[in-house]
């Protein structure tokens, strides 16, 4: 089960840095500038990384420039090449102090390379490092605190995970370094996994499903409603295990790409990512042939994100046996039936955040803190109650509520009850749009009338309405639009709002021109006008307390004019007159 958000859990005092450089190189010019550092710099640039290397040769006594300090702050990764004479340069040592400072304050990632030096010599300042510090202590005896700061910086960098040249080939070491950095740059989620709300347990569960230690072929489906966090979860797991495979590809937004451009761009991207070849595919069948025959001997990790048709799966992965042994395919979808048709090995259900996680995420989004201020706590709980653990909804509402005062919060919450946020509804409506007309009617009946009801009663009513619930409800369950157990049937509150909003939009200003009515004021308005209104198919009014006073306005002939009315359920309403006639179309009366 899964639900996650991309919001970080422990934000710094400032906003997340916008890196200008991918990599900053710190090195001792006289040791490695024209050899190892130059080769590494060229390899990084060829791979496409934006790498900063100071080209200025230090003049004795010159202090480190502000431009260089700024470049360190603007670099996401720093590589410190620790060579024999590194510590002889106060420039390098000042640079290192700044690097360690950025590592602690800005989450800059630092990697040491021990170039023909032993890490213990760096850590303990022995051998050539001892000689260098002997001179520093003599030259800077009046500034001994600076010397101690340099020593501390060297100890810290020596304790970091990095690379050791030893007797290895420089070319091989550079290839390994570039590959490692490129992987981290390509898959940034790995840098933030500790900070993602609700991620750890979900990642562990999905990674367990993959079972990468075995050499079989395995396809895993990640299934859940829109906005629940399927893509983010798949992305994090993809980043974590991708190094175990010969080829990796994450095909994002398969549904959207196919609707816009068809399958060919996805086939071309898959081939390019796995084979590192730019191949022009003429048609889908050619792409299918290339994927099946050129990729069959590779151990591949593939993610197909947001799949909504079986044909997409057939033309991209076949039955999963097109690739080499040990390959893994992750499919994210809102439609469980697709996963069954493909006969996936396991279906992993994504569910919402629990209340604690939801409150944590909302607090981060609105207050950039792990917990809300006390005077906002109850309002935050109201938001959590409204969103029911849906990360997408929490993030959208959190962004909207950011920097707003308590009165604005209250106004927003009141407005949401009548006018849900359109950004949330648009995402949820994608699943609804994929239904046929009968399935849409079942969904709308549940959203407007029957949510959180007794399963058998609802099935019976839908059957009376000729909506074939035995088939249709199964489709809605598979598409994550409703849930059922042995006795109860329900849907997420936001899905209910989405369904009711669809009916409301049939005619926002005139409730009599909508197909379904469930609000007291709308029903009262329509039934007092005694007009022939063709649109209304269902009226369900379930009041918690009896209403009497204003119902004397009802005209007893009103019901006879509703020629398409099939469903009429009115509880706790006392009519002064029984209706004279009921329409022949009526199937359910209660």
Automatic annotation (TrEMBL):
Query: What SMART domains would the database entry show?
Result: TIR (SM00255)
Which GO BP terms, alphabetically? defense response; signal transduction
InterPro entries for this protein: Apaf_helical, Disease_R_plants, NB-ARC, P-loop_NTPase, TIR_dom, Toll_tir_struct_dom_sf, WH_DNA-bd_sf, WHD_ROQ1-like
> Any idea which GO molecular function terms this record carries?
ADP binding
Ranges in a coiled coil = none
Q: Name one Pfam family in it.
A: TIR
Q: What are the protein's UniProt keywords?
A: Leucine-rich repeat, NAD, Plant defense, Repeat
Listed SUPFAM superfamilies = P-loop containing nucleoside triphosphate hydrolases (SSF52540), Toll/Interleukin receptor TIR domain (SSF52200), Winged helix' DNA-binding domain (SSF46785)
Origin, by domain of life? Eukaryota
Q: Where is the TIR domain?
A: 19-189
Task: Name the PANTHER family for this protein.
Answer: DISEASE RESISTANCE PROTEIN CHL1, LEUCINE-RICH REPEAT-CONTAINING PROTEIN
> Which protein is depicted?
TIR domain-containing protein
* Species this protein is from: Castanea mollissima (Chinese chestnut)
